[in-house]
Amino acid sequence: MAIFKQPLSVLASLMLFFVTSIALASDTVDSTAVESQEVHNEHATHEEMDNHGEKSPKEVINEHIAHHLKDDYYFTFFSDEAEDKHYGFALPVILIDNGLKIFSASEFHYGDKVVEKEGQFYKLYHGKIYKTDAEGTISYDEHHHPTNDKPLDFSITKNVFSLLITAILLFIMFTSLAKTYKNGANSLPKGFSRVLEPLVIYVRDEIARPNIGDKKYKKFMPFLLTVFFLIWLLNLIGLTPLGINVTGNIAITLCLALFTFVITQFSASKDYWAHIFWMPGVPVPMKIILAPIEVLGMFTKPFSLMIRLFANITAGHTVVMGLIAIVFLMKEQLSTGGAIGTSLALTLFISIIELLVAFLQAFIFTMLSSLFIGMAVQEHHHDETHSSDMLGEEDNAIV
């Protein structure tokens, strides 16, 4: 019995809101591993520094890659490290700490300054905002992790900004496409809608229909289209030099996977739950053994969706940044022109592959989501199957 009786267009719209909300509050989930890597780079690689105490090229590269993968409060187009100048623009900081506090991230000056608001002091340290004193003191535990309290952070970071822009683009594109059909089903799309229509038909005919079925696929099309185009656009934006890594944020992939999980479970038929808790057609002892395995499978499916998207996008960004770093690592072994040429050639090759991966990951996530939904909503006819098997056995006996 399906609980969702209305089309999922409202749920698809809510998904964009909740994904953005999760990104607003995902600072801890997103940057824990990155911060651990930064702490490791800061305290475990002192042997790699030269006699003047400067960081080695390897350490600098690791820090740049870690900085690229994590979320940030600034869009930095390029930096002049010699003069310590950064060219870009800051994003708004929104904190809830004994009241609402809103100010620009530029006041942190990339973590060099302490910001005072209504008697409270805040410091930006390793991509997180901590409460501190006027001197910007940061306390550490035995593992050298900060122990300062953190305010509730709802800032508009790069990931949130990118999600909002993507949501606006999706709304504009599909509103334009929908208007072309108001004059009749035979109306032809115009402009960019001509690019969207084949993709919409592809999702419908190659993903939704084969996996969910002709009778029930329409109800899930709004969700599948939203997931496909949201992931695809975010992946494409992630390939720009702006340093955006939205789908490489595990909080975002977790939220997307949770929507697939919720829709799958709440749309499931009675046969689906029968197969989960009391597998038909098998001996009772096996039913008892299979039940916990099937229940575990309910959670491993969305978990695989979450990890697959997160790991592939993060790995792609890491590889591209690593190849760009060849310019710095090989400048002594090769001429400057040779190092730049080698780096550009390899980076261009990987970037072309990343364009394919951007589409492929959107396709895989949508395909698996439709497959899980189809497995949940399909009807099983055990009696008819059992009768057919019995008739087949009787015919074989007669022969």
Give an account of the 3D structure:
With 399 residues, the protein is mostly helical. Helix content is 60%, strand content 10%. The chain contains twelve helices and eight strands. The longest helix has 42 residues, at 336-377. Residues 1-5, 27-52 and 383-399 have low confidence and may be disordered.
Secondary structure topology:
Blueprint: H1 9-24, H2 27-43, H3 57-69, E1 74-80, E2 85-90, E3 92-96, E4 100-104, E5 115-117, E6 120-125, E7 128-132, E8 152-153, H4 158-179, H5 193-212, H6 217-238, H7 250-266, H8 270-277, H9 284-324, H10 326-329, H11 336-377, H12 382-398
Antiparallel strand pairs: 1-2, 3-4, 3-8, 5-6, 6-7
Give the gist of this structure.
With 399 residues, this protein is mainly α. It is 60% helix and 10% strand. The radius of gyration is 26 Å and the shape is globular.
